[in-house]
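REVIEWER CHECKLIST
Item 1: Sequence provided? yes
Item 2: Single chain? yes
Item 3: Sequence as submitted:
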Amino acid sequence: MKRTFARVVLPLVLLSVTALAQTGNATPAPSTGPAPTKVGIINVQQAILLTNEGKRDFEALEKKFEPKRTELQNLQKEVDDLKKQLSTQGDKLNEEARNKMAKDIDSKSKTLQRSLEDAQQDFQSQQGDIVNRIGQKLMDVIDKYAKSNSYAAILDVSNPQSPVLWAAANTDVTQDISQAYNAQSNVPAPASTPSAPSATARPSSGGPTHPIAPAGTKATPK
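Item 4: Structure as written out by the authors:
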């Protein structure tokens, strides 16, 4: 995928064998033997993006919205051209012509803004569906991985509000979990595999980006 799709935002999750059991997605760990003491971290957002299923579905979503992106870019160009024309030729037009051009600019700008907001909302809704679907299945993979490798807890650090301030590199299981997910899902890697950012214990904060918007356009909440 050539473009960077919107950053997925997931709530902070503290994953442990006990917590997973309480959700009904896992069975309690055996009580025999010493209690597990290992603690790992995972960037759930990145784990989803690293799965073959995530790469495939997000790339398909990007392609699905290409026509809408092109439509918005063309409309943005119309608005920009009209503004430039009014700026350079406005003093040569009579009052009626200037008012008409100003109204056209205002009308097209409002249409662009509404179309952009609708497209953003639609894109993010479908993106959320992908995240939720893969995220639910990822929980099962985390449960199996934690039990098989004697982890007492696996902490999600994808949220900027995560209480994890520092963690050793060898505690990061993001890659391992995504690889385990791929093995379980049997989804092949996409032909054009995008490069994902490296996992970190503390990802940078910030809201979702909006790949639908044409350059120079910013959507405002409804």
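Item 5: Key structural point noted by reviewer: The mean pLDDT is 79.
Item 6: Recommendation: ____
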